[in-house]
């Protein structure tokens, strides 16, 4: 009888140890997920939080276990920004029954938040948080490419429809020119033909802007390129009351690019920086544009930073949209064309800005190890 009891007890201990082992194994998996996880019981008390979630909240795990929502919001280490976000998620989950939420944190990262509750959770509430910034970037890139492709199609169609009547008008003016000469009005014909040619040039330029040609690449030194760009812009910058500072982290930086197209991008961004500095109303404000280049992994990062008026998040989200501009006489094509040029070079262009502080553009271009040539095209 005693031996049977001992055997049953031993089996129970083994079963408990096995269950505990499985529990520890699964808990270890949850602790090391790249997604943040929090589990609240039916009373609203936090019973589990993994390492990633504690990092996101920037708070010690052990200080959170056993807290309810109110106690968490009163926690001295919880930032004001995170308190607002937690309250917003709570309202939307409880009052609007929303189970999916997207938010942007104070560092500009995108997060997808999922709340699971109901019968399958036995009254518990599971909250998971995942960083989806990379997916958002891919989505934004695809969206931008679609818009630029559509712009190219629209531009080609408009140009075709305008060029046809212009060609007919030009032909008839040339036929009428002998009669105008007899009437002593040859000047009229000359002006009409000149204006038609000018209209055709504008259409050609518009087409090239909306659909840049394939890059005609040559390998050049990035410092040499930036020095030439500074020489081209510093006189205009001084006239507008700002200075251009160039800083090169390494002299040996070569890229394979279409020099004319990349110059167009750099000059456009610097011109925008000058305009942003000009919008600052403080007469004592000293405008500065910083250019620098450095190697990051397999790319050269060219940075253009200004201390101008800056932009809010609403403007930033539409900055590369075709025809979007805040300037009275702007076309809204400059940055959308710049975006496409950089993408055609297998690079990337990003921007960050803060209202009243300034703006920084970063252009990433693939680095090359080939022999460099000067921007003018002559080999070093």
UniProtKB/TrEMBL annotation:
EC number: 2.7.13.3
Family annotation (Pfam families): HATPase_c, HisKA, PAS_7
Entry-linked InterPro entries: HATPase_C_sf (IPR036890), HATPase_dom (IPR003594), His_kinase_dom (IPR005467), HisK_dim/P_dom (IPR003661), HisK_dim/P_sf (IPR036097), PAS (IPR000014), PAS-like_dom_sf (IPR035965), Sig_transdc_His_kin-like_C (IPR004358)
Catalyzed chemical reaction(s): ATP + protein L-histidine = ADP + protein N-phospho-L-histidine
Superkingdom to which the source organism belongs: Bacteria
Keyword Phosphoprotein set for record: yes
Broad enzyme group: transferase
Molecular-function GO term, any one: phosphorelay sensor kinase activity
Domain PAS positions: 22-76
Histidine kinase domain ranges (all copies): 157-369
Alphabetized UniProt keyword annotations: ATP-binding, Kinase, Nucleotide-binding, Phosphoprotein, Transferase, Two-component regulatory system
PANTHER family in the cross-refs: C4-DICARBOXYLATE TRANSPORT SENSOR PROTEIN DCTB, SENSOR HISTIDINE KINASE
Protein's name in the database: histidine kinase
